[in-house]
Amino acid sequence: MREIVLINITGVDRPGLTAAITGVLAQGGVNILDIGQAVIHDTLSFGILVEIPDTEQGKSVLKDILFKGYELDQQVRFTPVSEQDYQQWVGNQGKKRHIVTLLTRKVTAGQLQAVSSITAKYGLNIDHIDRLSGRMPLDTPADKGKGCIEFSVRGEAADPQALRAEFLSVAQELNVDIAFQEDSLFRRNRRLAVFDMDSTLIEAEVIDELAKAAGVGDKVSQITERAMAGELDFRASFKERLALLKGLDVNVLDSIGASLRLTEGAETLFAELKRLGYKTAILSGGFTYFAKQLQAKLGIDYVFANELEVVDGKVTGVAVEPIVDAQRKADLLKELAHKEGLRLEQTIAVGDGANDLPMLAIAGLGVAFRAKPLVKQSARQAISTLGLDGVLYLLGLRDRDGQL
After folding, report:
1. Is 196 a known active-site residue?
2. Buried b / exposed e across 270-285, counting CB within 10 Å, b at 16+?
3. What is the mean pLDDT of the chain?
4. Which residues, at least 6 apart from 180, have a Cβ–Cβ distance to it below 8 Å?
5. Which residues touch 253 (CB under 8 Å, ≥6 apart)?
6. pTM of this structure
7. Is the fold of 95-183 the same as that of 192-401?
8. Set 198, 331, 356, 389: catalytic member
9. Which DSSP state fits 94?
């Protein structure tokens, strides 16, 4: 009668070990039902689920594995598996899979305990845990660290909305980001990424910088803050703010453009997206004048932003239609996806304000980046602890895959 046995092998990793073990199994005519291997700090953990035939060669397989493990200085453990348990395991393979991604400056046991406890609470089983971030020196400054742990989980969440709410609560408490996505075909097959500009690609709201130059900084920044938080209609507030800039000398644009700083991780993100064949776009409620500068610097394919009307060297304060507001951003995302022959599931949208929510909602991966509380709560994913290159972790990329 055939046997089903789980073989666990642990010890110091060394070249040729897998070949030696599977060589013994091959001599016994064994079938491999499942296999997994991981190495952590030169220590191997190797698991093989095997079906051993009822033959003369098969009868000696387990004994031969023990001898081979002894030769290689490995610990070997056997666990018999009933056919009933195996069939139940096979039946579970059709269950939905999700990816839980933890992003933080420094990974702690408390963070992992929180994530694993919540997944268990909502009926999800962790199948695999992987570190996507690179190895960090012990003396890395607190604000320069970068850690990412990815959990592959199986099952249907008992209450998906409550699960996401609990992840968000814990994320705020522990100063981490926790993303929860379906592990679908499209997750690794996205090809278009669109971005808000102000406070997303750059560390400023350009209209506020223009207002400072015009002497109305405090008044405009208060309106901007309320608009980005979703307290004011963007379109109306944009016209109100722009009217306050009437008479501003166009010569200040160059100095403001030169002073704008890219957000942490922006250059790395765009270099990787370009290397992976993505099309990229700026969809901004800011101004084309500054978006074009970013386009040249980062190699962005498309730019859609608002025109800053100038007459006789002075800003007129009049809004030029069409204004790139919340609905316009969502419409542009759809148009670009259609132009590139893509489904919306193959798109990424990143932004920080309430006027970004419609495009975040329809994108395959919508990310609220360093966003206001309302935006973080409404978006499916959020990144606040790391830079823009943290988006690459949500795609499943490891640091060693590229230039992260």
Report:
1. yes
2. bbbbeeeebbbbbbbb
3. 93
4. 98, 99, 100, 163, 164, 167, 381
5. 210, 289, 290, 308
6. 0.88
7. no
8. 198
9. G
Q: What are the extents of the domains in the chain?
A: 3-90, 95-183, 192-401
Residue 224 CB-density burial (10 A; 0-12 exposed, 13-18 middle, 19+ buried): buried
In three-state secondary structure terms, 326 is helix
Amino acid (one-letter) located at 208:
D
Region 105-127: what's the mean pLDDT?
95
CATH class (in words) of the domain with range 3-90: alpha beta
Share of residues in the chain with pLDDT > 70 (%):
99
Q: Residue 8: beta bridge partners? A: 47, 77
325 is catalytic: no
The strand order across the sheet containing 74-80 reads 31-40, 43-52, 3-12, 74-80
- Which residue reads 């610990």 in tokens? 75
Question: In the CATH scheme, what is the code of domain 192-401?
Answer: 3.40.50.1000
The whole-number pLDDT of residue 55 equals: 87
171 sits in the region (left: phi over 0; alpha: psi -120 to 50; else beta) called alpha
Which residue in this structure is represented by tokens 């001599």?
27
The pLDDT tens digits of the residues spanning 356-373 come to: 999 999 999 999 999 988
- 141 upstream amide cis, omega within 30 of 0: no
pLDDT level of residue 249 (50, 70, 90 thresholds): very high
- Among 13, 177, 196, 399, the active-site one is 196
What DSSP string describes 206-247? HHHHHHHHHT-HHHHHHHHHHHHTTSS-HHHHHHHHHHTTTT
Tokens 């139940």, residue?
88
Whole-angstrom distance between the N-terminal and C-terminal Cα of the chain?
A: 52
Overall residue count recorded for the chain in this entry: 404
CATH homologous superfamily for 95-183?
Answer: ACT domain (3.30.70.260)
Residue partners of 228: CB distance under 8 A and separation at least 6: 199, 205, 352, 353, 354, 355, 372
Q: Which of 36, 35, 43, 40 is nearest to 13 (CA)?
A: 43
Residues 312-363: tens digit of each pLDDT:
999 999 989 999 999 999 999 999 999 999 999 999 999 999 999 999 999 9
